[in-house]
Every structure is written in C-alpha cells, then in structure tokens.
Amino acid sequence: xxxxxxxxxxxxxxxxxxxxxxxxxxxxxxxxxxxxxxxxxxxxxxxxxxxxxxxxxxxxxxxxxxxxxxxxxxxxxxxxxxxxxxxxxxxxxxxxxxxxxxxxxxxxxxxxxxxxxxxxxxxxxxxxxxxxxxxxxxxxxxxxxxxxxxx
Length: 151
Prior knowledge:
- The protein has one domain (2-149).
- The mean pLDDT is 91.
- It has seven helices and no strands.
- The longest helix is centred in the last third of the chain and has 26 residues, at 124-149.
- The protein has helices at residues 2-9, 21-39, 42-65, 77-87, 95-111, 116-119, 124-149.
- 72% of the residues lie in helices and 0% in strands.
C-alpha cells in the first residue's frame, strides 16, 4: 500500500525528479488533458479529475503519516488537481489559453495570494490540496475574464 500511496501523491515519482516538482505536476495535468482531448473526449478528463480529487484527500493523508513535513515538495497530486480546474473550462486545444491557465496557476500557487495562503493552513491533506484548489479557481477566473473580454 505504501508503494501505491507514494506513487499516487508523487504522480509516479515525478515529484522526486526536479527542483520544481510543482511545475511537473501542473505540466502532467496539461498532458493528460491533451491526451483526453485528442484520443478520447473531455468527459474522460472530467471523470479522471473527480476520481483523483476524491481519492487524493485520503491517500495524501496516508502519505503524510510517514513524513515529517506538513506539505512535502514531492507531493504534486495537488498541483495536478489545481491545474486541472481551469483546464476543465477550455473547450478546444488553444495554445494561448493553455499557456494562460498554466502561467496563472503557477503564479497563484507559488506566490499564495490571499486566500490561497489561508487555505494551506488547514491540517493534513486538506491544507496540502485546498491551497491548490483555490489557486486553480483564481486561474480559472483569469481564463474566464480573458474569454469574456478578449475573445
């Protein structure tokens, strides 16, 4: 079970690969989105998102029991979840919208503007995941403003 837990929260070990593991987690979400768009349908991405979201709270808590850190850097499933939120609202492959969603999410995730910074104060998996959910919602707002006023 520990192997599965570690594999899940680090997205198959990607979280251990670089000094910027969150960027890898966000990039992996975009990769999954593109694969779903090209080979399957948006419905598959939505299903994957909700399955990962639901499982991540329990599995991340299991992983945190074995670590001393409240939010270990190798845990990147939260970045996957946060980055997926604006992707859920991109209808077709549009490189500018993907880039905008990616950059906005990374900025909100890294700089932790209010209330992102408050969300990470929760204990356990809730704090690990919730700050990225809020950052994802912020990046979705940026994407929606772009779509509303620019397009």
